[in-house]
Amino acid sequence: MRWSASLPRADALKADSPGSASSRPGGASLDVLRFLAAAFILLFHFGESAPTPLNELTPVMAQGWLATDFFLMLSGFILMRAYGPRLAQQRVSPVSFVSRRVMRLWPSHVVALLLMLTVVGVATLQGHPPGHAEKYTAEAFWEQLILVHGWGLSDTPGWNVPTWTLSALVVCYSLFSLSTGGIFQWTRWQIVTGMAVALGLALGLSALVGHAFVDLPFRYGLIRAIPLFFIGALLERLTAGAEVSRRAYGIGMAVSFAAIIGLSSLPRHAVSDLVVLSALAAVLVLSAGVRFPENHLTRRMGRAAYALFLIHSVVGAIALGVDGMLMHRFALSEPLHWLTWGLCVALAVAVAFVFEAWVDRPLSRWVSGRLSAGGSKAEA
Question: How deeply is 212 buried, as exposed, middle or buried, from its count of CB atoms within 10 A (0-12, 13-18, 19+)?
């Protein structure tokens, strides 16, 4: 791993913007990694409906927190890399940054939520209400619609469950926009200290509520999300300018995944949880520092990751419901049941790419255009 001689400051990073180079460190690998994290969340949620639950086949599939915690660190890391310099140089205001980030997420989130409402409503009218009807209340729907459902207002997630992290990220974006200018003035030791303090506070608060930090319950989502987001952001500053050879990347990834899979097979312990979290951080840093050619597929995977995260629960509600009815009616053999279940997974992935191309990307462009036009009018 190679580092530049000193930690880059904001004024040394004026050209550092998304898409500024054709083969950037982490350009392809982070896109693919983002998609794989969303795919892990998909498999975790679909896994209980497999002919043999996936967590019985491999213990790592019982650890859904792995992808969620990684996703939160990855969000902080990518935003620090992409937007940190502009915030630090005050080329974008905190209000503008937060509004743009929220409006990047919110329209597609609303579409997915309305689709889930339609699925639940139609199924209920047809005599097939959801298994846990208490999760599908009007109050929970409105909380989710305005992205406040991950702020500790409720005890149990409902509707499009994974989106609690989007709600928590709204708070992270606000804190990030206000603190980035100061963080860019920190030395490497101050950054390490900041990471240690964030983790220490998180562990302390988790001890007070009597639960492991890495997978805190839904109502404590902010205690979980904020430290992980900032650990990811600080990791980016700590490793800014670092590049990793493909050989070191391969060895490091193999060791990291071996640690994650191996420790996931053992009984949970606070120490092993922190080791796994460290291994996830290593995967992030290694992927951010290696150069692989970027192409149409890697870019599409990166863009489709958010769509897969958003839409897989909606697809699962339909496809897995049909799969269950087929199994009940025709008593499918196990190999045939694996085939139908696999088709449900493949359908969710395919729908995500379609959703990204036909819904998420057009909405993002439309919102971006509206915000840009509004900004131009304000300046005039």
Answer: middle
